[in-house]
Design a protein that fits this description.
single chain; 672 residues; alpha/beta; 7-stranded mixed beta sheet; 20 helices; 16% strand; ATP-binding; coiled coil; ATP binding; nucleoside diphosphate phosphatase activity
Length: 672
């Protein structure tokens, strides 16, 4: 990384950031005497925490032609793998000590930034605020938003709000000035079995984010109880077993319900794990909001029909990937999501999320595809050829992903590994014999991860309207007067930057750049990257590029001449689901109504839920009065119509004489 880039990088985004919850336990890590002996399974007390599942050691190997002895006994191979497992734990503990040593220095820089924001926060005096914590798979990011007070002063404004013509929208929130981030991801706390330890670690983890928020908003401290805080977790938490996920989220709620720790407005529902489809929808909302094509087209009641312009959203996170767009014909056979902002119109959108198809999980699955099912000798003595590595490179990896007899990823295994668990070690290498062959093989391996073989039934049932892994997807909208373009962000942006592609590039340009990058050895690749990629991640970027190409082209179905716009920032704001989520949440908050003397009614307070109920009661009472008046008018009109009807018509009674035709009744005949 260049010096300027490092200077502009947020301190809490540093690659070697502090894993705070393990730092607090670093006193228990004393020496390497507690590591498992060679060939000894890891004891339950030593079993690795959840966040080390599939964790890879950093690449410390030299980049040279890879050769291993080929005739070692099986016992020797197992001993070597056991030694690698020991080395893993030794390196892990060393990293924790380094993180603990770096923590104080990082927090000093963090405190300095908060002091600067305290003196010059840049907040407007008349606005209200809300906090959104994006708890992702690699870290948590806090966004502070502001918006105009949700107050209604007169009957016209009330009618406007009820009819969907009045929408609140957030800003700035996604600017770096009002954003703070820390690592690791929230899912790592599943390693805590004891509730008290878990809650203490969770409070310590979240504290820098809340200190940051209180520093930025200090001038409005008296109103903290009115400002809601939301925590929404994504793929890192979705990947966890249900029990672990519930336990971690319960701890988050306990911490945020502590008013001594959290002075902001919080209810339990405000902290939860997003579904993948919610994340996809909020991606779409955030993109279209930033491009100015959402709010005005949403006002009113009913369904949005024939919008003037919309854009699609493509998000590639660490654990999952999302696609979402407005289907112009509104023919969506599956994965339909009705998105509505407050009382406004709702949008019929296609949205889908693919868990374990995020970049980090794709890398883990790729490595497991190569190594799973191999013997210890094949994995750690001979080594395994990986065409996606640069020529002359090698990488030590650790995984617990296995393959079924049909070739699908599974957590089930039958072998016994030196780790004592399902984890196994492997050394991947590229001998650099045939660069052209390497590129083709890497692209093929990346395509295999999409599991297009599962599309057979989808292709039959949906007549070929399918994306990947057997999932239905309508035809992609193409550029037109009513559809702009697809906006891709997150890991798409990292790959685009590495390949030196322009913000708008075709799939063909992506393919050509990928072929070139995958033909380079490690040293040439480092020159090619020009400091845009961390050294310890550089060797993975051939695979990353190949995976992005296959996901877009053979997964979602973009054609080679289709253009994708890739950017993490639009109009100075960071792109992502958090903005769309806050836009949605703001418009679920109750309105306050001014009385005849223009004095505000009591607003909902964090410590006084009754005031919120009274406000809602006033609003509900008003709505009830309007409905009662409407019903009165309806019944009056129906009564009036009946009166007029009786005045204009009279029944003709049946004749009573013997000459009657025997009819039981006569029709209504108009009076002449």
């Amino acid at each position: 990384m260049t010096g300027q880039a490092q200077q502009n990088k947020h301190v809490m985004e540093d690659e070697e950031s502090w894993d705070l919850h393990w730092t607090r336990r670093s006193a228990a890590i004393t020496s390497d005497e507690d590591k498992p002996e060679a060939m000894s399974p890891v004891s339950p007390a030593e079993e690795e925490p959840q966040h080390l599942r599939k964790r890879n050691l950093k690449h410390h190997g030299s980049h040279h032609h890879h050769r291993h002895p080929s005739m070692l006994a099986t016992d020797d191979a197992l001993a070597l793998e056991a030694q690698k497992e020991q080395d893993f734990w030794t390196q892990y503990k060393r990293e924790q000590r380094l993180n603990a040593a770096q923590h104080n220095a990082e927090m000093e820089q963090h405190d300095a930034r908060m002091n600067e924001l305290y003196a010059n926060p840049g907040i407007a005096p008349a606005t209200v605020h809300g906090l959104m914590i994006d708890a992702g798979s690699t870290g948590s990011r806090l966004h502070i938003y502001e918006w105009e007070p949700r107050t209604l002063a007169n009957r016209k404004e009330i009618t406007s709000a009820v009819s969907g013509d009045r929408i609140s929208f957030p800003g700035p929130g996604t600017e770096s000035r009002w954003t703070d981030r820390l690592r690791p991801g929230l899912d790592t706390f599943s390693s805590y079995a004891d509730q008290q330890e878990l809650d203490a670690a969770m409070e310590a983890y979240l504290k820098p984010l809340f200190d940051f928020a209180k520093s930025v908003l200090h001038a409005k401290q008296a109103d903290f109880g009115n400002y809601p805080v939301f925590l929404r977790a994504t793929a890192g938490m979705r990947i966890l077993p249900a029990d672990d996920r519930a336990r971690v989220m319960a701890s988050v709620r306990r911490v945020l319900n502590n008013v001594q720790f959290n002075p902001f407005l919080f209810q339990n529902e405000q902290a939860r794990t997003l579904s993948g489809e919610e994340e996809a929808i909020y991606d779409w909302a955030g993109v279209n909001f930033l491009l100015g094509d959402l709010v005005e087209q949403s006002t009113g009641a009913g369904t949005v029909v024939n919008p003037q312009k919309t854009h699609g959203a493509l998000d590639l996170g660490g654990g999952s990937t999302q696609i979402s767009f407005y289907e112009p014909h509104e023919d969506i056979m599956s994965n339909l999501f009705k998105f509505q902002i407050g009382q406004a119109k709702h949008w019929n959108l296609y949205a889908h999320s693919f868990l374990f198809f995020g970049m980090n999980e794709a890398i883990h699955r790729h490595q497991a595809t190569l190594a799973a099912g191999k013997t210890s000798k094949e994995r750690v003595v001979d080594g395994i050829y990986d065409p996606c590595l640069p020529k002359g490179a090698k990488s030590d990896v650790r995984s617990d992903i296995h393959l079924s007899a049909e070739g699908f990823e599974t957590w089930t295994y039958n072998e016994t590994y030196p780790s004592g668990t399902g984890f196994y070690q492997a050394t991947l290498y590229n001998d650099g014999k045939d660069a052209e062959s390497d590129v083709k093989q890497c692209l093929a391996l990346a395509k295999d991860l999409l599991h297009l073989e599962n599309n057979k039934w989808c292709n039959f049932s949906h007549k070929g309207d399918c994306s990947l892994a057997g999932v239905y997807q309508p035809q992609l909208p193409t550029k037109s007067e009513s559809f702009g373009e697809f906006i891709a962000f997150s890991n798409y942006h990292h790959v685009w930057k590495f390949l030196h592609l322009k913000e708008r590039a075709t799939i063909q340009q992506l393919y050509d750049a990928t072929q070139h990058a995958c033909s380079l050895n490690h040293d040439d690749l480092k020159v090619f990257a020009r400091g845009k990629v961390e050294d310890d991640q550089l060797d993975s970027y051939c695979f990353r590029s190949a995976y992005v190409f296959q996901l877009l082209h053979n997964g979602y179905g973009f054609q080679m001449n289709d253009t994708i716009r890739v950017s993490n920032v639009i109009n100075g704001k960071k792109v992502g689901w958090a903005l769309g989520a806050m836009l949605y949440e703001i418009n679920t908050l109750p309105w306050t109504i001014e009385n005849e003397t223009s004095q505000m009614l009591p607003s909902h307070k964090h410590h006084h839920p009754a005031s919120k109920a009274s406000l809602q009661g006033v609003f509900i009472g008003f709505i009830a009065a309007v409905m009662a008046l409407s019903l009165t008018v309806v019944f009056f009109l129906r009564w009036r119509r009946q009166v007029l009807y009786q005045q204009q018509y009279e029944p003709v009674k049946e004749a009573s004489n013997s000459s009657s035709r025997g009819k039981e009744s006569s029709p209504l005949i108009p009076r002449v």
